[in-house]
Amino acid sequence: MKGRPRKLRIIQKEPQIRQFSPRGRIGRPGYMILKHEELEAIRLSDHLDMSQHQAARFMGISQQTFSRVLKSARKCLAEALIKGQIIKVDGGDFRMEKHAK
User: Fold this and answer.
1) Which of 3, 39, 42, 53 is the most exposed place for a label (fewest CB within 10 A)?
2) Beta partners for residue 19, in sequence order
3) Do residues 91 and 35 make contact, with C-beta atoms less than 8 angstroms apart?
4) What is the rounded CA–CA span in Å between residue 12 and residue 101?
5) Quick check: 2 pLDDT over 80?
6) Rounded CA gap, 85 and 25, in Å?
7) Which DSSP letter does residue 6 get?
8) Nearest-angstrom CA–CA distance, 69 and 60
9) pLDDT tens, position by position, 33-85
C-alpha cells in the first residue's frame, strides 16, 4: 500500500554549481546528496533570511513540510562538513517556477 504522492516543491532555478569538494583530504572522501529542494530551503531560510512561513509559501508547501526539508538539508550539510565529504546537489521532488526573489 502506497501513501499519498509527494507534493512537488517549487524551486526558482537549478543551481549552477552541483558539487562541493573538500580540499586537503587524501583519497576518495565519499559524498552526501543534497536534494534540489533542500538547497532551495537553505537558500530561502539561511541566505535570504526568509521566515519558514514565507519560504514555505514560496515553495508551495506547508510550513511543517518546509521545516522537515530544512532540517534534512542542514543535517546533510553538517554530516558532509564534519566527515569531509563531497556535497552533490541532485534529485528531489521539485518543479521549476520563476519568482520575484
Assistant:
1) 3
2) 88
3) yes
4) 8
5) no
6) 9
7) P
8) 13
9) 999 999 999 999 999 999 999 999 999 999 999 999 999 999 999 999 999 89
> CA-CA distance, 33 to 8, in Å (whole number)?
18
Question: Which H/E stretch holds residue 41?
Answer: helix 36-42
What is the Cα–Cα distance from 40 to 23, expressed in whole angstroms?
25
Q: Where do we find the cell 528531489?
A: 92
Name the residue among 33, 4, 7 with its Cα closest to residue 93: 7
How far are the Cα atoms of 11, 24, 57, 78, 85 from residue 99, in angstroms, in the given order? Answer: 9, 39, 11, 29, 32
Burial of residue 43 (number of CB atoms within 10 Å: 0-12, 13-18, 19+): middle
Amino acid letter, 48: L
Are residues 44 and 63 in contact, defined by beta-carbon separation less than 8 angstroms? Answer: no
Cα separation, 69 vs 36, in Å, equals 10
The answer to whether residues 25 and 84 touch, using CB atoms and an 8 Å cutoff, is yes
SS3 48: coil
User: Which set of grid coordinates corresponds to residue 29?
Assistant: 572522501
